[in-house]
Amino acid sequence: GAGVSQSPSNKVTEKGKDVELRCDPISGHTALYWYRQRLGQGLEFLIYFQGNSAPDKSGLPSDRFSAERTGESVSTLTIQRTQQEDSAVYLCASTARGHGNEKLFFGSGTQLSVL
Amino acid sequence: GDSVTQMEGPVTLSEEAFLTINCTYTATGYPSLFWYVQYPGEGLQLLLKATKADDKGSNKGFEATYRKETTSFHLEKGSVQVSDSAVYFCALAAYSGNTPLVFGKGTRLSVIA
Fold it and tell me: Which one, of B105, B16, B91, B17, lies nearest residue B57 by Cα?
């Protein structure tokens, strides 16, 4: 597609439920990032995929968070047993070369609200 | 670890006013510095960058100069427009080039006619 697409744009869920967020990167971009932004905070790195290499999961805040990406296509971020502190905007970005190519292309984000 | 601190918002200006959004950083070595902008309803996009000390990045009338002595990268524009209303993020990339971008909290700018 023309840009990075994320869905849903908004998600309201109850505490304890699982949620799945989707990111469609720009075609041909080998690198994909997930960030989140909690209210009043900066963008917090979560996970990084580069081609077929093992993902960098160093930013995932707990084992309730996981993400998958098959090749250079769609990625899904899954949050199990959601907690209120998971409420945030989840941002996906892709780029052609990964670290060292600082021009990240971001989606509009998914606003997650956990009640 | 590396970090970026930018001024708290929101910032509200009248059209044609001068804009400064402060950004300072903490990093080892010589990072690259960036400003990203997020317009309403859109994703973040790169506005400008500077990769070494004393470099000036510029785009769309915005400028920022990489000041190593003060570890700063303040964003400036001489005359803002209503269309500049957005959230501005300062960011850095480590010199090693093998870690993700580190972002500040963002500063919301509202320009009123």
Answer: B91
State the virtual CA torsion across B84, B86, B97, B64 in degrees, nearest 10: 40
Residue B93 to residue A102, Cβ atoms within 8 A? yes
- Asked if omega into B40 is within 30° of 0 (cis), the reply is no
pLDDT digits (tens, 9 = 90+) for B33-65: 999 999 998 889 999 999 999 999 999 999 999
pLDDT at B35: 97
What pLDDT sits at residue B91?
Answer: 94
In whole angstroms, what is the distance from residue A6 CA to residue B59 CA?
Answer: 27
Please tell me which residue of chain B has the smallest CA distance to A4: B43
Chain B residues touching residue A59 (CB < 8 angstroms) = 100
Q: Does B43 touch chain A (CB under 8 A)?
A: yes
Q: Which amino acid is at A13?
A: T
Residues in chain A within 8 Å Cβ distance of B89: 42-43
Weakly modelled stretches of chain B, pLDDT under 70: none
Determine the average pLDDT of the residues in A19-48. Answer: 93
- Considering only CB atoms, A43 lies closest to which of B34, B89, B99, namely B89
